[in-house]
Amino acid sequence: MRLTLAFAAAAVVLAGCGAMRAVLPGDANTGRAPARTAVEAAPSLAALSYPPLSPNALMEHVRVLSSDEFEGRLAGARGEAMTLDYIERAFSAIGVQPGVVSSSGMVGWRQPVPLVTSRVTNAPTLDIAGADGVRAYTFGAQHVIWTKHMEASVNVADAEMVFVGFGVVAPELNWNDYQGVDMRGRVAVILINDPDFGTGQDRGFGGRAMTYYGRWSYKFEEAARQGAAGAIIIHETEPAAYPWAVVENSNSVAKQDILRPDRGMSRIPIEGWVNNAVGMDLFARAGLDFAALKARAQTPGFRPVPMNLRMSVSLQNELSEAVSYNVIGVLPGRSRAGETILYSAHWDHLGRCPPDPDGDDICNGALDNATGVAGLIELARRFANDGRQERSVAFVAFTAEEQGLLGSEYYAAHPVFPAARTVGAINMDGLNIYGPARNIVVVGYGKNTMQDLLATAAQTQGRVIAQEPFPERGSYYRSDHFNFARIGIPSLYAGGGIDLVNGGEERGRALQNAYVSERYHKPNDEITEDWDITGGAQDLQLFYEVGRVLASSDQWPVWNAGAEFAAAREASMRSAPQ
Ligand SMILES: [Zn+2]
User: Fold this and answer.
1) Ion ligand 1: residue ranges with CB closer than 5 A
2) Domains of the chain
3) Chain segment 497-549, per-residue pLDDT in tens
């Protein structure tokens, strides 16, 4: 995660939900008493005594899920059992059916997500040799590196470094930053964001809006496809949209990943960032003009540039495995039960965080994302009260979103409802807690026609849809809907709005910025007196309406021209059994 986009949700996402991470189960000093059994401590479902989708019902769910008792709902830790139990009891009380059918035919709520925690234990220096000798850069302050290889140690020795611009291979744009270089055994040095950023031009990379090519995760994925031995991103605050501290904090601690069949061996051995000063130092030592080469990298026809530098690093890695769970419920349809509309929200948060001044170290995650889970349960209740629709409506609470969208990535690789028969998806990550708004912000504005359904529904509330205020931050790629989109499912991620009925845009922006700077991923992301979730309830009505229209029709939302996920939809439709 991640600021000030589609309302607080965007705020959550901008900085990347995984920015600040709490103590992980693998962390040595957890040493806590085992979790109390859910049955003994099961909090009441008082929320269900209020009308569905009502502010009171939402607040009651949030009160329970963000209470200290749930210990910040860290995936794989103490709060997980209580959270899953609460969601499942609510779903069954509402009449939602368990959605997961295991290979043995057992029907249940939980989709197991195998997770592995890895931690670099030797704070390795990054040794870069050049004409001026070897310089060792320190871990944390100057660089952060890690490996997705599930191995105890990884070594790269004397690997040639190559500047590859933005490290983008976009055949549809006839763009290849790796043109003509064999990256095997070499290290790619890469710029963050995409070639359009800051140029005021649109060369197909979305102009001001960041494309997935601009995301750090894309950079490492592409370098792996090129067979590189390592990939190092140069940090620049503006194109990255966050300061070095965020990079250092989220990457110099234990990391979680999905336990992959290949144990991560298809990834590059070394992934990492250097801070801006080190980046500039490397170019100076290589006798290269950074500004001139960056300008060239923003121009079609860029070619990789050898840096006459060689990198060596030896990394020690501590590994531990655990299983967390996505919770999946469904309201089966009637005539078109094989076609599904999906609602999603991640249930996990950070668990325990660095304590704040009064010693509170539980990151309660009230806004992020107890509100989304409350919305998910209440939407299920609203649909259950409606009786059966023509199509099925499913509700997915994802795990490990804070660790890098892992629960939804696992779901996308093992979809419970076939992607080609999934009509559309609506993701909730943070609801509006600042009162009603005159508009609703769509993150990834213009990507697909789910947005048109939202615009029609918004009119019934006298509201309009709006673009996200900071498209350059690439928020569409920072929450779970992104993994739906990657398998082609037209996905909507919208929230609140900046134009508040009480106080307009000015108050809207001020409140969002205050949340990001004071509460985002901190122990005080808690319910406060000034919460007014009627705005969130207003949005849920719209999300309900979009789903109801789809569930009672044979409409198939589509990706708009130019959307990078259209190809995935075509492919999944083509490969679907007819
Ligand atoms: Zn979140």
Assistant:
1) 12, 17, 368-369, 429
2) 118-319 (3.50.30.30)
3) 889 999 999 999 899 889 988 998 899 999 999 999 999 999 999 999 999 99
